[in-house]
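Review box. Two proteins, two foldings.
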Amino acid sequence: MIANVKSSGMTVAEYLAWEAEQPIKHEYIDGEVYAMAGSTLPHNDIAVNLTSLLRPFLREKGCKVRMSDAKVKVSEQGPYFYPDVVVSCDERDRRAIEAIHYPRLIVEVLSPSTGAFDYGQKFQFYRQIPTLEEYVLIDATQIRIDRYTKNAAGKWELTAYPENEEDLAACQLELTSLDFRCALELIYEDVELKGDTNLGIE
């Protein structure tokens, strides 16, 4: 997101009504509205790749994957965010019109302008969602993925991919919240990265 475009004090109802008439997306935090920054083509390609991998896998599991046009609300009072990929397995979200409220998995593809916020304050907000089990951050400039999972004690644990660059081609991302695994090379397939675009992946 970028600088706020509306003065403070906007209610959730005012935000939802106002944003429905805007040509671009806006996120909402504590009465402030922030315009969404444009993404790069590698950013978009990564989100498309992961969504394409998840969609057929989830079809028989009662879960639904959505991309960046789907709002997620942390609570009835907000914040409201637009993650790059979100999966919900709750029937209430299948019937929802304005926003998803019961996500199981949220994925953010990192941009230079938003990466620090995605790791920091946004993750703090996302952790308030009781149904969220997994939060994944995917770098769009190099092959790097950080996966946070909530353990049985409610604590968040980090797994970084790849663990060893020598095993890059064989490295797989595991999404335990969905019982899903896929090779990192599929997530980064046809993605133009900065510098060396192959990084050991053929």
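Next protein.
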Amino acid sequence: MTPVPRDRGAPYAQAVADNAAQDQLRLNVPGHSADAGSAPELIEFFGEDTVRKDISPLLGGVDLGPDNPLSRATALAAEAWGARRTWFLTNGASQANRMGALVFGALGGPLQQVVVQRSAHSSFIDGIILAGLTPAFAQPLIDDRYGIAHGLSPRELARVLAATNDPKGVYVVTPSYFGAVADVAALAEVAHAAGVPIMVDEAWGAHFGFHEDLPANALSRGADLVVSSTHKLGGSLTQSAMLHLGDGPFGDALEPLVQRALMITMSTSPSSLLLSSLDIARQSLQTGWDRIGASIAAAERIRTRVRDAGVFGIVSDTWDFEEIVATDPLRVSIDVRRAGFNGHAVREELMRTEGIYTEISTDSCIVAFLGPGYEPDVDRFVDALHRLEPVGRLAYADTHALPLPHFGRPSMRPRDAWFSPAVTIGAREAVGRVSADTLAAYPPGIPNLLPGEIITAEVVDFLRTVAASPGGHVRGAIDPAVDRLRVVEN
């Protein structure tokens, strides 16, 4: 058994709790003043203790002054993840992605090229627009059997880097939404050989490295910047995240730029509750080896029961791609199309009739996530799944997965298209025109259409199909059905 690290506490969270326990006369923000007279409904909903811990920033003994509890908390996080430095974020991993784009821009200024995995999260594309970067896209592995995108191969990264003039950075995504892990060590070697830093969006791998049966984290494999969406599978509150800086060849150049990017993307009133949750999540991951192991075992029990029943399939059992070097054991992806079901409808039905919430669905799959330390009722989930019958809206209407559309041809820089005068026209009429917006089927938030790309009939059909599916949503669409699109005027 791996030894459990010594519990070094959660210094920032403890400082917030100590502050809340004081006998205070609050004549400052937040305006609720933690008082039953000014905020009775808030206290009734959250409880007095939570409201009292919602404190203002810049307090001595909490986050102000040398060696304050917040700085100690971030130092402990850097040590836990193996980072040179770690920043706590309260605007989610989306903030980290935008920060990374701004950092790449600061390395060379606007118009600079960066190599970007085309299945990047939409928030990094937002960052490209803000920073005025020119993306050179590298194509990820596409699993045509299920219509899902995974990671990037070192071969593809090397190809795009060789064809790109003076790139300033590389951005890749791993693990995928389905838990497939790319070869970060090889990708970092390729990027560093080209003389550029590599940023890894490890949003779905905040827990990596905290148990011997989990994949290693990206920092340990040579990444220079790593995005950690800590609330996803790290245990912190929603909208909290971390950005880690590796102690590699670019650390000296990147560190001041990350700090500058933080200052123009952060809230000037960061939530003490979110920051405390990051501190506590780190503590929990570091000391929770046994609990994490129990979650891994529970996830395997789900997979085993599904396999033994022979009705549905386990998606990760079909992976035989050399680009996938590991799999997150806390992700359970179930092929329901094999039994004649529509994945979106199954997810909605389980929520509606059984109170069972899975993370995402595609037309052919549902994906369950187990937070590290969580042991769900395996029988409740598996039995409910097998009680479903593939009739009516639950039935799959086709024999093939909805394929991911081919991306449209870039015609303008994303920033130029986004800021250009635009007109709104019918989706069919927009085919062949230049998109002014980023549109991404959610989940997982991978843009299917970017500002500056030519709109294709294939992309329009895909987005409208997703929008019409149970629980379907297209981020960036100006109407829920994707009946209309914004295009560059000229």
